[in-house]
Sequence to fold (213 residues):
Amino acid sequence: MKRIKAVIALIFLATVTVVLAGEALAYPPFMIKAQKYGAKDCTFCHVDPLGGPPWTDRGKWLIEEKERRKADVVDVDWLADYKPGESETGGASGGSVEQELEALFNELIAASKKKDVSVFDRLLAKDFIETNADGLMIDKNQILASVPELVVESYEIEDMKTRVFGDAAVMTFRHNSKTRFQGRDFSGQYLETLVWVKRDDLWQIVAAHVSRQ
Fold:
């Protein structure tokens, strides 16, 4: 029973983007045009190799350009004007550290979708502890053991904010998810806080707190 309840602790780690009817994939013409700017596959602009959100900094920049130019669709040729680090959205507060943490968080998104435990092993600190929505204390080993059994149908993040304090950072956000664990439904709305610490040049999550909204 405790193991089933522990699934709530996995929700922030099993981060999968919203699955829409007819998942948004990169159009072949976009891929062809992007090749002259160095693209080899959809990860040039998308975190997921199949396309759709979440986006890399380059993809976010294209979306921002679409809004700035008041265009109906994205034009890949805008990449001729792209300079790394120009994206200002996506939950980070604009600095290089915030962007790095967001990129690591996106790795967890992709890893959750593929049930890749190795990414969780790398990004969770050995002394990681989470307090989940049921008040249980969950450690790293419990997370790693449970990842393969968690199914995330959708996961939508809102209001992400990251504050950096030297070699530590606090990431807060809310999400609405549809998740199942061992056949049970744990869908709902949650508030989450992640604490990151940089050790030996690697950012890792050392603590987390999840509560129902």
